[in-house]
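ok so I'm stuck.
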Amino acid sequence: MLLVAFLYVLPLLITPKLPIPTPTAVAQVTPTITPIYTPVPATPTSTATSTASPTSTSTSTGTAARTLTKTPTAAPPTDTRLLPQATPTPVPTSTMGPSFGEIRFCLEDEVNHEARCCKASRVVFSGQVERVYVSWTYNNAYVAMKFSRKWYWNDQLIVLREDGIWDGTTWRIDGTSEYTWLNPAVFGPGHSHLLSGSYTVELYIGDRLEQRGSFAILR
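replied:
not stuck anymore, here's the structure
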Protein backbone atom coordinates (compact mmCIF):
# COMPACT_ATOMS: atom_id res chain seq x y z
CA MET A 1 0.00 0.00 0.00
CA LEU A 2 2.86 2.32 0.67
CA LEU A 3 4.14 1.57 -2.81
CA VAL A 4 0.79 2.40 -4.36
CA ALA A 5 0.58 5.66 -2.45
CA PHE A 6 4.10 6.64 -3.52
CA LEU A 7 3.33 5.94 -7.15
CA TYR A 8 0.20 8.11 -6.85
CA VAL A 9 2.03 11.10 -5.38
CA LEU A 10 5.11 10.83 -7.59
CA PRO A 11 3.58 12.43 -10.73
CA LEU A 12 2.51 15.38 -8.64
CA LEU A 13 6.03 15.93 -7.38
CA ILE A 14 7.56 15.72 -10.84
CA THR A 15 5.03 17.99 -12.74
CA PRO A 16 6.32 21.65 -12.63
CA LYS A 17 3.96 24.31 -11.28
CA LEU A 18 3.10 27.14 -13.66
CA PRO A 19 3.48 30.64 -12.16
CA ILE A 20 0.27 32.45 -11.38
CA PRO A 21 0.22 35.63 -13.47
CA THR A 22 0.16 38.85 -11.49
CA PRO A 23 -2.61 41.23 -12.69
CA THR A 24 -1.17 44.33 -14.34
CA ALA A 25 -2.63 47.71 -13.41
CA VAL A 26 -4.77 49.21 -16.15
CA ALA A 27 -3.64 52.72 -17.06
CA GLN A 28 -6.29 55.40 -16.54
CA VAL A 29 -6.72 57.51 -19.66
CA THR A 30 -7.93 61.07 -18.96
CA PRO A 31 -9.78 62.58 -21.92
CA THR A 32 -8.53 66.01 -23.04
CA ILE A 33 -11.25 68.62 -23.41
CA THR A 34 -10.70 70.79 -26.44
CA PRO A 35 -12.74 74.08 -26.45
CA ILE A 36 -14.79 74.65 -29.53
CA TYR A 37 -15.27 78.25 -30.64
CA THR A 38 -18.34 78.90 -32.69
CA PRO A 39 -18.18 82.53 -33.90
CA VAL A 40 -21.50 84.26 -34.34
CA PRO A 41 -21.13 86.73 -37.21
CA ALA A 42 -22.27 90.30 -36.46
CA THR A 43 -24.11 92.40 -38.99
CA PRO A 44 -21.43 94.49 -40.73
CA THR A 45 -21.88 98.27 -40.44
CA SER A 46 -19.74 101.12 -41.71
CA THR A 47 -20.30 103.44 -38.73
CA ALA A 48 -20.11 101.03 -35.75
CA THR A 49 -17.36 99.29 -33.84
CA SER A 50 -17.87 95.94 -32.08
CA THR A 51 -16.53 94.49 -28.86
CA ALA A 52 -16.29 90.67 -28.68
CA SER A 53 -17.25 88.93 -25.41
CA PRO A 54 -17.01 85.08 -25.22
CA THR A 55 -19.94 83.12 -23.76
CA SER A 56 -19.45 79.54 -22.49
CA THR A 57 -22.05 76.83 -23.26
CA SER A 58 -22.22 73.08 -22.63
CA THR A 59 -22.97 70.30 -25.18
CA SER A 60 -24.74 66.99 -24.54
CA THR A 61 -21.41 65.07 -24.65
CA GLY A 62 -19.91 67.05 -21.79
CA THR A 63 -17.56 69.02 -24.04
CA ALA A 64 -17.33 72.69 -23.14
CA ALA A 65 -18.10 75.04 -26.03
CA ARG A 66 -17.61 78.82 -26.07
CA THR A 67 -19.57 81.11 -28.34
CA LEU A 68 -17.98 84.40 -29.35
CA THR A 69 -20.69 87.09 -29.23
CA LYS A 70 -20.00 90.54 -30.68
CA THR A 71 -21.72 93.52 -29.06
CA PRO A 72 -21.98 96.42 -31.51
CA THR A 73 -21.12 99.90 -30.17
CA ALA A 74 -22.75 102.79 -32.02
CA ALA A 75 -20.34 105.36 -33.46
CA PRO A 76 -21.11 109.11 -33.36
CA PRO A 77 -23.13 110.31 -36.34
CA THR A 78 -21.16 111.88 -39.12
CA ASP A 79 -24.01 114.07 -40.37
CA THR A 80 -23.39 117.54 -38.89
CA ARG A 81 -26.06 119.47 -40.71
CA LEU A 82 -27.69 122.16 -38.52
CA LEU A 83 -31.44 122.25 -38.11
CA PRO A 84 -33.11 125.48 -39.15
CA GLN A 85 -33.80 127.74 -36.18
CA ALA A 86 -37.16 129.33 -35.63
CA THR A 87 -37.43 133.06 -36.19
CA PRO A 88 -38.22 134.79 -32.85
CA THR A 89 -41.62 136.40 -32.68
CA PRO A 90 -41.45 140.08 -31.66
CA VAL A 91 -43.32 140.95 -28.49
CA PRO A 92 -46.22 143.31 -29.16
CA THR A 93 -45.67 146.79 -27.75
CA SER A 94 -48.98 146.68 -25.92
CA THR A 95 -47.77 143.83 -23.69
CA MET A 96 -44.56 145.60 -22.66
CA GLY A 97 -44.22 147.61 -19.44
CA PRO A 98 -43.56 151.33 -19.17
CA SER A 99 -40.07 152.59 -20.00
CA PHE A 100 -38.04 155.80 -20.34
CA GLY A 101 -35.80 156.40 -23.32
CA GLU A 102 -33.30 159.01 -24.54
CA ILE A 103 -32.33 161.85 -22.20
CA ARG A 104 -31.48 165.38 -23.47
CA PHE A 105 -30.16 168.44 -21.66
CA CYS A 106 -30.66 172.02 -22.88
CA LEU A 107 -31.20 175.68 -21.88
CA GLU A 108 -34.60 177.32 -21.59
CA ASP A 109 -34.50 178.91 -25.05
CA GLU A 110 -33.82 175.45 -26.55
CA VAL A 111 -37.02 173.88 -25.20
CA ASN A 112 -40.09 173.06 -27.29
CA HIS A 113 -42.76 173.49 -24.62
CA GLU A 114 -45.55 172.23 -26.83
CA ALA A 115 -43.72 168.95 -27.58
CA ARG A 116 -42.26 168.96 -24.03
CA CYS A 117 -38.74 168.19 -25.19
CA CYS A 118 -35.31 169.74 -25.78
CA LYS A 119 -34.83 170.77 -29.40
CA ALA A 120 -31.03 170.59 -28.93
CA SER A 121 -28.92 168.31 -26.77
CA ARG A 122 -25.67 169.15 -25.00
CA VAL A 123 -23.59 167.74 -22.15
CA VAL A 124 -21.42 170.82 -21.41
CA PHE A 125 -22.64 174.29 -20.37
CA SER A 126 -20.47 177.32 -19.71
CA GLY A 127 -20.87 180.64 -17.89
CA GLN A 128 -23.68 181.54 -15.53
CA VAL A 129 -26.48 179.02 -16.01
CA GLU A 130 -29.78 179.82 -14.32
CA ARG A 131 -31.67 176.66 -15.30
CA VAL A 132 -30.98 173.38 -17.11
CA TYR A 133 -33.84 171.46 -18.71
CA VAL A 134 -33.90 167.70 -19.12
CA SER A 135 -36.30 165.83 -21.41
CA TRP A 136 -36.75 162.12 -22.09
CA THR A 137 -38.93 159.89 -24.20
CA TYR A 138 -41.33 157.38 -22.66
CA ASN A 139 -43.44 154.40 -23.71
CA ASN A 140 -46.48 152.63 -22.25
CA ALA A 141 -47.00 155.07 -19.38
CA TYR A 142 -50.31 154.69 -17.57
CA VAL A 143 -52.39 156.72 -15.15
CA ALA A 144 -51.26 156.35 -11.50
CA MET A 145 -47.85 155.02 -12.55
CA LYS A 146 -45.32 156.00 -9.87
CA PHE A 147 -42.02 157.55 -10.89
CA SER A 148 -39.27 159.53 -9.19
CA ARG A 149 -36.01 161.27 -9.98
CA LYS A 150 -32.72 162.00 -8.26
CA TRP A 151 -30.23 164.80 -8.99
CA TYR A 152 -26.54 164.57 -8.07
CA TRP A 153 -23.95 167.36 -8.03
CA ASN A 154 -20.33 166.13 -7.91
CA ASP A 155 -21.70 162.73 -6.84
CA GLN A 156 -23.65 164.26 -3.92
CA LEU A 157 -27.42 163.83 -3.78
CA ILE A 158 -29.05 167.29 -3.94
CA VAL A 159 -32.63 166.51 -5.06
CA LEU A 160 -34.85 163.53 -4.34
CA ARG A 161 -38.39 163.60 -5.77
CA GLU A 162 -40.38 160.46 -4.91
CA ASP A 163 -43.92 161.81 -5.17
CA GLY A 164 -44.28 161.68 -8.94
CA ILE A 165 -47.61 160.26 -10.13
CA TRP A 166 -48.43 159.92 -13.84
CA ASP A 167 -51.92 161.46 -13.73
CA GLY A 168 -52.62 161.91 -17.44
CA THR A 169 -52.98 165.71 -17.14
CA THR A 170 -49.68 167.32 -16.27
CA TRP A 171 -47.81 164.21 -17.40
CA ARG A 172 -49.63 163.26 -20.56
CA ILE A 173 -50.03 159.58 -21.38
CA ASP A 174 -50.61 160.27 -25.07
CA GLY A 175 -47.24 161.93 -25.68
CA THR A 176 -43.81 160.55 -26.47
CA SER A 177 -41.65 163.00 -24.49
CA GLU A 178 -41.61 164.70 -21.09
CA TYR A 179 -39.37 167.26 -19.43
CA THR A 180 -38.44 168.95 -16.16
CA TRP A 181 -35.66 171.30 -15.02
CA LEU A 182 -33.09 172.01 -12.34
CA ASN A 183 -32.75 175.53 -10.83
CA PRO A 184 -30.35 177.15 -8.30
CA ALA A 185 -32.86 176.82 -5.44
CA VAL A 186 -31.54 173.31 -4.81
CA PHE A 187 -28.41 174.90 -3.31
CA GLY A 188 -30.35 177.10 -0.91
CA PRO A 189 -31.34 180.77 -0.72
CA GLY A 190 -29.01 183.33 -2.24
CA HIS A 191 -27.96 181.25 -5.26
CA SER A 192 -28.97 182.79 -8.60
CA HIS A 193 -26.98 180.39 -10.76
CA LEU A 194 -26.17 176.69 -10.76
CA LEU A 195 -22.77 175.86 -9.34
CA SER A 196 -20.02 174.63 -11.61
CA GLY A 197 -19.33 170.95 -11.56
CA SER A 198 -20.75 167.69 -12.85
CA TYR A 199 -24.47 166.81 -12.65
CA THR A 200 -26.30 163.52 -13.00
CA VAL A 201 -30.02 162.78 -13.11
CA GLU A 202 -31.60 159.35 -12.51
CA LEU A 203 -35.17 158.50 -13.52
CA TYR A 204 -37.06 155.72 -11.74
CA ILE A 205 -40.28 153.87 -12.47
CA GLY A 206 -41.42 152.59 -9.10
CA ASP A 207 -38.22 151.31 -7.47
CA ARG A 208 -36.53 150.49 -10.78
CA LEU A 209 -33.77 152.71 -12.15
CA GLU A 210 -34.89 153.26 -15.72
CA GLN A 211 -32.60 155.94 -17.18
CA ARG A 212 -29.53 158.03 -16.27
CA GLY A 213 -27.82 161.04 -17.87
CA SER A 214 -25.02 163.52 -17.02
CA PHE A 215 -23.79 166.98 -17.98
CA ALA A 216 -21.24 169.51 -16.71
CA ILE A 217 -21.21 173.29 -16.03
CA LEU A 218 -17.88 175.07 -16.57
CA ARG A 219 -16.89 178.60 -15.52
